Structures are given as C-alpha cells and as structure tokens.
Amino acid sequence: MAKGMQTRQGLVGQELHNRMTRGETLTDAERTALQAWYGAQDALESTLLQVAPPTTPDALRADVDAALVRLKKMTQDLQRLSKENATLRSENAMLTRRLAQTTQGVA
To answer: pTM of the prediction?
Structure first.
C-alpha cells in the first residue's frame, strides 16, 4: 500500500512541478506539497548517489581491474556491432542497386 501511495504522491509532485515550471500559480497547500516532494526527491537522489569509496589500495586495484574487464567487454561488443553494421550496410547497398536495376528493367 505504501508503494502505491508513493506512486500517487510522485505523480502529484510531478504534476505540481510541471504546473509550477509552466508559470501556473499554485495554492499555499500545493506549494507546501511541492516542497515536500522536492525534499523527498533530494533524499532519494542522495541515497542513490552514496557509494562508499574503497578504503584500501587493494580495493582500489580490484575496482580498477573490474572496470577494465567491463571496458574490454564493451569494446569487443562495439567492435562486433561495428562489423555487423558494415556488413548490413554493404548488403543494403547491394539490394538497393539490385532493386534499382529491377525497376529500370520494368519501366
């Protein structure tokens, strides 16, 4: 039930924010509700951004190693996708030429 209430409150907060940013006048109660919503959003953002920094050089090295592994995989994925895109572009160009030849023969 609390989650549904948060969703409704979030929707109300977004609506009030949209109205306020469009220059509409809000009642005192709406401004109070909007400020409360901003506070909740700030608190949520702060919670999401809190990441405990590694405390030891070994932990830092482990984080760097893990990041390098992810980077290597992403690089390989991008290279694979780039090759696939080049193949598809080539096939598309061939099919476009073939279609042009076919339609010239019909016309």
So the answer is: 0.43
Task: Fill in the DSSP letter of residue 55.
Answer: -
Specify the DSSP class assigned to residue 23.
T
Residue 34 gets which letter from DSSP?
H
**Residues 25-74: pLDDT tens digits?**
999 999 999 999 999 998 888 888 887 766 799 988 999 999 999 999 99
CA 92 to CA 102: how far, in whole Å? 15
Among residues 59, 9, 52, 51, the alpha carbon closest in space to that of 34 is found at: 9
For the chain, give percent helix, strand, coil, nearest 5: 85, 0, 15
